[in-house]
Amino acid sequence: MRYRRLGDSDISVSEIALGAWLTYAGGIGREQTEACTRAAFDAGITFFDTANAYGHGAAEEAWGEILSAYRRDAYVLATKAFFPMSDEDSGLSAAQVEKQLDASLRRLRTDYVDVYFCHRFDVRTPIEETIEALTASVRAGKVRVLGFSEWTLEQIRAGLGVADAERFAVSQPQYSMLWRAPEAELFPLCAEEGIGNVVFSPLAQGILTGKYRPGAPPPPDSRAADAAMNGWMEGRLDDAKLAAVQRLARVAEDAGLTLPQLALAWVLRRAEVSAAIVGASRPEQIAANVSAVGVALTDDVLRAADAALGEVPVTTPVLAGGAEEGVMHRVAGNYA
Fold it and tell me: 259-268 and 239-254 helices cross at what angle (nearest 10)?
């Protein structure tokens, strides 16, 4: 394992992080969750990412129990707030920041989290109110550093512009060989402001493993075939994309790599990226993902990968946004 700093903060994290979005929010059982978490520690992973809305608190509760067996200073823990936790509880007002953070700390069985993310931007609350509440949480010792996920550049600048406040240290955008939007504007701004990027979906929800093939149904043991975990994949398994990924698999093979190794090494080649968040439902997936650490891609491999994918990747500066938000609302239990 290798480690990188979160932007200009004093926190170092493993280049591969373990995320708890769908799997540990109810997609797999308690024993599998513990086995994957133990495998992560064994592989040198020190960064664990969750959110209050993942399984309506279930993911936090699972890790609160499991991680309590480890020294608190042996890992870096991140959670988030914004999405509904009840009909009355959502957003990033001062009252909600305090209430949701305290509830997360109880579920996680800890006095503090290392990173507290604004899961999305709250257009209903003045940015000054949100930032002042987050600053108070840092100065009270409940949070070490602050982060945001999927904010626009204007929203980020507004947050950075609040006077006498703690600055953001971390961004959490979607980023992969198929979703390159952060490269255009977000990464340059983060580099300028000393903000690290912890990217989610670096394997594009498993599409970049090559398991999904054009014209064929999803494998029965895949996320796309699992009703509890396939909501965000709606409309993403089009044949043109899957055919491009099969071409990419041949590039990986020619380079002596697996497709996941190529995809993760491609993400980690960027200096702006502090860590890539992966999910895992089986311990062996942890080892497979960690094997990408330290893989250097030659210019020839990078050019061949671009040629294989052609015009398929999203490159314009847009947010991952809508589809995930719909899924997150359903995960939070407030929508059908």
Answer: 90
Q: How far apart are CA 228 and CA 67, in angstroms?
A: 24
Just list the catalytic residues: 54
Task: Please compute the mean of the pLDDT values over residues 66-89 and round it to a whole number.
Answer: 97
- Structure pTM? 0.90
User: Encoding tokens for residue 78?
Assistant: 């991140």
Q: What is the DSSP string of 265-317?
A: HHHHT-TTEEEEEE--SSHHHHHHHHTTTTPPPPHHHHHHHHHHHTT-SB-SS
Identify the CATH number of the domain in which residue 185 sits.
Answer: 3.20.20.100
Residue 221 counted as domain residue: no
- Domain of 200? 3-210+270-295+315-331
Residue 132 CA to residue 265 CA, distance in Å, equals 37
Write out pLDDT tens, residues 83-132.
999 999 999 999 999 999 999 999 999 999 999 999 999 999 999 999 99
Contacts of 32 (CB under 8 A, 6+ apart): 23, 281, 282
Strands 143-148 and 168-171: parallel
Per-residue pLDDT band at 220 (split at 50, 70, 90): low
Q: Is residue 50 part of a domain?
A: yes
Number of structural domains in the chain: 1
Residue 230 inside a domain? The answer is no
